[in-house]
Design a protein that fits this description.
The protein is of the alpha+beta class. The protein has one domain: Sulfite Oxidase, Chain A, domain 2 (Alpha-Beta Complex), CATH 3.90.420. Helices cover 16% and strands 23% of the residues. The strands form 2 sheets. Strands 3, 4, 7, 8, 9, 11 and 12 form a 7-stranded mixed β-sheet that branches. It has a 5-stranded mixed β-sheet with strand order 2-1-10-5-6. The chain starts with 16 loop residues before the first helix and ends in a 13-residue tail after the last helix. The N terminus is likely disordered. Bound molecules: ligand MTE.
Length: 323
């Protein structure tokens, strides 16, 4: 994976959490006053859409206070990995505008009683997206704190009535060279694929995400539907999902296919297991701190700080072997 770095961010463009929250209050107020629009202000996210969402619960310990200061919207939407739109961090935010995200359907099949291809609206019908502030740790050593909007993955999967043979869940991204210029390059064996064990997929922290920062998901972040699994390295968070399949055997996954020694199927954040080419003991937040894009190094936590919730899924497993 490339490890390129963006140039430093000027102090004038830095937004701390308090400012974000104030701005969010302001944007909400502005959204109620249609004559005023902040769209077009440099560096500002678009005004929030009226997305229904559940009242913020912190039952999973995923509130902003637990996760730390939020990454700036501008950084979370311009420093991306989405290889279908290029391998540079700034490529997706420039190139992904060509991705048509509506209408969108998802084909669900495999070991389940009710397979079918359903429009996104049907897939999520009756489920109200909730805000979850998650720490996100990329295998490359940087991290972010993002307020996602999504629904528990398990709630969606249950609708298709997986059978007792469904031991894993496989996910596939759209692969359309007309919309995705990056897939002309043989970086990965397209389409992008990811997978989870069924108990991981059913865990309440695993989220199917449709928005971030109170707004619809931008294309570069995986619109209209992506996976977020906060205790795993970011590459498990497959974007722009078009297919979900319940399987008996562990499915193929893109990075594991490409370089199995470097990217395991489980990919749980684990400071005790180094990547073959670098240490995973610490990370740098994309934090908009002073004049720098990256804040100082901090220690990486086992399971990215979610051990209390998820460590029991891996009881008895040798995590150095099953990395
Ligand atoms: N999904 C697809 N389809 N293609 C990709 O290249 N990159 C992964 C993951 N999901 C990727 C993907 C990697 S390596 C990371 S770190 C995260 O998306 C980045 O998510 P973000 O850009 O929203 O921070």
């Amino acid at each position: 994976m490339s490890r390129c770095r963006l140039p430093p961010t000027p102090a004038s463009q830095i937004t701390g959490e308090a400012v974000y929250r104030d701005r969010r209050r302001l944007l909400k107020a502005l959204a109620l006053a249609p004559a005023l629009s902040v769209a077009g202000c440099r560096g500002e996210p678009p005004p929030p859409q009226d997305i229904p969402r559940a009242a913020g619960t912190d039952a999973t310990g995923t509130g902003a206070d637990a996760a730390g200061p939020l990454t700036r919207y501008e950084d979370a939407t311009s420093y991306n990995n989405f290889y279908e739109f290029g391998s540079g961090k700034a490529d997706p935010s420039r190139a992904a505008k060509t991705l048509v995200t509506s209408p969108w359907s998802v084909a669900v099949g495999g070991e389940c009683a009710k397979p079918g291809t359903v429009p996104l609206e049907t897939l999520l019908k009756g489920l109200v997206p909730e805000e979850r502030v998650y720490r996100m740790r990329c295998v490359e050593g940087w991290s972010m704190v993002i307020p996602w909007l999504g629904v528990p993955l398990g709630e969606v999967l249950k609708r298709f009535e997986p059978s007792s043979d469904a031991k894993y869940v496989a996910f596939t991204t759209l692969a359309d060279p007309r919309q995705m210029p990056g897939i002309r390059a043989p970086i990965l064996d397209w389409p992008y694929r990811e997978g989870l064990r069924i108990d991981e997929a059913m865990h309440p922290l695993a989220l199917l995400v449709t928005g971030m920062y109170g707004r619809p998901l931008p294309q570069q972040n995986g619109a209209p539907l992506r996976l977020v699994v906060p205790w795993k390295y970011g590459f498990k968070g497959i974007k722009s999902i078009v297919a979900i399949e319940f399987t008996r055997k562990a499915p193929r996954t893109s990075w594991n296919d490409m370089q199995p020694r470097e990217y395991g199927f489980f990919a749980n954040v684990n400071p005790a297991v180094d990547h073959p080419r670098w240490s995973q003991k610490s990370e740098r937040r994309i934090a908009g701190d002073g004049n720098r894009l990256f804040a100082d190094r901090i220690a990486t936590q086992p399971f990215n700080g979610y051990a209390a919730q998820v460590a029991s899924l891996y009881q008895g497993m040798d995590l150095a072997r099953w990395y």
